[in-house]
Each structure stands twice: as structure tokens, then as C-alpha cells.
Amino acid sequence: MYVTDRRAVRTAARVLVLPAALAALATAAPRAAAHTDLDTASPAADSARAELPPRITLTFSDPMTQKYAKVAVTDPNGKSAATDEPEVSGKEVSLALDPTSPAGRYTVGYRVVSADGHPVSGSYSFTVEAASDSSAPSARETESEGAAVPRAAEEAAGETAADSTDGESSGGESSGGTVPVLIVVGALAAAVAAAVGAYVVRRRRARHGD
Predict the structure, then answer these.
(1) Which residues form the signal peptide (predicted)?
(2) How many CB atoms lie within 10 A of CB 88?
């Protein structure tokens, strides 16, 4: 009777312990096989922004380790836009960016390791749109400024021509004033010569008459 009871206890233990162990393994297996993922990113993938944010922030499904957090952001020219090393705070990894970086397409690359040893890597891109420069002259203003230059040149040329015409007019009046004087002097000389000739003729006739 005693032996039979011991065998029954052992059989019951095996029946109870085996399912419990299998249940424990089934519960632990998904956790051990779970993969750390990138949950959210700011700026988001394929997004367009008016300006570059002061920092990029990546949020993962598990806490990260500072030692193995690697994040890089390259600008449209292929240069690094980061100003410091990545910072880890729980599940978040952030990286400060240079606000003077140019507009265009940015690429984010990351490789991090979670606290339980799972590595995570990937990349994505976002765009910073070029801001419109209100201080730059518009095409219409440029055309107006371009047209103003020929007008100014034409006005200057017109003033120069007017000054030249005035000078020529003054010179004509001076020349015209000199011509009448010469005519008067010539007429007087001719009159004097005629008078002298008439006097000489009369003197000769008078002599012949004597």
C-alpha cells in the first residue's frame, strides 16, 4: 500500500510539473525572441520641414545603452550635421544638429544596442525646404531696375546734347554778330575810296580846264 502511494505521488508530480515547465518556456520564449524596434522618429521619415530642428530624436521599443548608441545625420552635401555625440535617455536617443546647415535632403543612420543586448540599425531621410528670401528682388523689380539704367543714360545723353546745342547756338550768334561789322567796315572803306577817286578826277579836270 505504501509503495503504491509513492508511485502515485511521483506520477502526479510528473503530470503537474511538465505542463508547468512547458508553460513557463512558452511564456519566456516570445520575450527572449522579441526584437527591439524603432517606434517613432522626429523628424519623421520622408517628412518635409520648413527648417532644420535643433535635434533629432529616435524612440525605441526598449531602453538603450549609451555606450553603443551610434547616430549620424548627413546634410545634402554629404557632411555631418551633428554638433555633439548621441544622448540616451531610457528608450530615446537624441542628437543635436547644426541650425546653419543648408536646406535639402537629410539622411539619418543609426545603430544602437538595447539594454538586453539586442542590436538595432537602420536609416531614413527627411527634407528641409529652402526658405523664400523676401529681401531678394523679384523678377519685375529686376526688370524695372534694368530699365532704369538705360533711361538714366538717355536722360544724361539728352542733357549733354542740349548743352552742346546751347553752346553751338551761342557760337552762331557770336559769329553772326562779327559778319555785319565786317560788312560795315568794308562799305565804309569802299565809300572812302570812291570819294578819294572822285576828288582825284575833279582835280585832274580842273587842271585841264586851266
Answers:
(1) 1-28
(2) 20
The CA distance from 170 to 192, in Å, is 34
In tens, the pLDDT along 121-164 reads: 999 999 999 876 544 455 454 454 444 445 555 565 556 555 54
CA-CA distance, 78 to 170, in Å (whole number)? 73
What does pTM read for this prediction? 0.50
Residue 28 has pLDDT above 50, yes or no: no
% of the chain residues with pLDDT over 90: 42
Amino acid making up residue 127:
T
CATH code reported for the domain at 38-128: 2.60.40.1220
pLDDT above 90 for 47: yes
For residue 183, how many C-alpha atoms fall within 13 Å in the half-sphere facing its CB?
6
Q: What is the pLDDT of residue 36?
A: 86
Cα gap 148→151, rounded to integer Å? 5
* DSSP line for 103-124: SEEEEEEEEEEBTTS-EEEEEE
DSSP string across 59-97: EESS-B-STT-EEEEE-TTS-B-BSS--EEETTEEEEEB
